[in-house]
Amino acid sequence: MTAGGTDWTRWVRDVPDWPQPGVLFRDLTPLWADGDAWRRAADTLARHASPESGPRPLYVLGIEARGFLVAQALADRWGAGVLLARKPGKLPRASYRQDYELEYGEAGLELHEDPIPEGAPVVIADDVLATGGTARAALELVENLRGQVLGFAFLLEIGGLAGRERLGELPVTTLVRYDADGAAKQLD
């Protein structure tokens, strides 16, 4: 815990060997189930992820499915709109698709082709940053649709998987960052 701050790890449940053997899943449902803790966590993340200078986000793009919760909470605090990056086949209109690799398989994301005005400032939000494949795919979706990614916001980061390195020089904000040994560093 940081000096004077909240120990956010109290609301993170470790689930070993899920979704496959050898993977340690960090479950955030206890955080979302505690209304007061979730409000405070969202306030803290929004305060730290808000761009210090330059354009304010016009949109927050949430990555299916838990990223939708994070995106909505940030967008509400910033007065921004929410965009939804969906799993393939879930969108009813023409969409752009970006495939990527996970630490335990392959997947894809889709976004309608028309929701982002050219140059619109976007923050990408999700629950966990692991290998960075999903976040990188979301970045490429926004860039291919001519939006401007300002940065990323995550509740948790699994630092030992080096996902941050896949995101280039853009700002990355995480509420809790676990290092390779499992020690947590947290935002106040």
Element layout with pairings:
Blueprint: E1 13-16, E2 24-27, H1 29-33, H2 35-49, E3 59-63, H3 66-78, E4 81-85, E5 95-102, E6 105-112, E7 121-129, H4 133-144, E8 148-158, E9 172-178, E10 184-186
Parallel strand pairs: 3-4, 3-7, 7-8, 8-9
Antiparallel strand pairs: 1-2, 5-6, 9-10
Helix pairs in contact: 2-3
Explain what the structure shows.
By secondary structure, the chain is α/β, with parallel strands linked by helices. The chain has a single domain, classed as Rossmann fold. The protein has helices at residues 29-33, 35-49, 66-78, 133-144; strands at 13-16, 24-27, 59-63, 81-85, 95-102, 105-112, 121-129, 148-158, 172-178, 184-186.
Entry keywords:
188 residues, globular, Rossmann fold, 10 strands, two-stranded antiparallel sheet, 4 helices, six-stranded mixed sheet, alpha/beta, 34% strand
Alpha-carbon distance between the two ends: 9 Å
Q: Specify the biggest β-sheet.
A: 6 strands, mixed
Strand order of the largest sheet: 4-3-7-8-9-10
Q: Please identify, by name, the CATH architecture.
A: 3-Layer(aba) Sandwich
Low-confidence stretches: none
Amount of helix: 10-25%
**Mean of the pLDDT scores?**
93
CATH topology: Rossmann fold
Annotation, overall tally of beta strands: 10
Supply the CATH class. Alpha Beta
Report the order of strands and helices. Answer: EEHHEHEEEEHEEE
